[in-house]
Amino acid sequence: MMLSEGMLLRVYIAESARIGKKPAYKHLVELFHERGFPGCTVFRGMVGYGHEHTIHSIDVLNFSFDLPVVIDVVDSKERILGIAEEIEGLVEHGLVVTQEVMMGRKR
Questions:
Q1: Which end of the chain has fewer CB atoms within 10 angstroms, the N or the C?
Q2: Residue 100 to residue 30: CA distance in whole angstroms
């Protein structure tokens, strides 16, 4: 496998975040799928906090249904930069970051 340059697009949002009538993470996964990105993964966090500085966790005594969610997509720099601004516009409360990466694809 040969590594090549690519870019990671990572979105940090709350599980309760919405885009239109859908949970934001589902909306974003569907958007990346429709646009032909090679893959997308959603991670549900165990504990975290965001812009409101309220800690949300899975802890039994302080159970939260609004856990942090991270969405990762990796593709070429051109494709990621081509959609990053649109994603940033869709995410009302959250963080959208990009990072250059080395990637190896097995098809």
A1: C
A2: 23
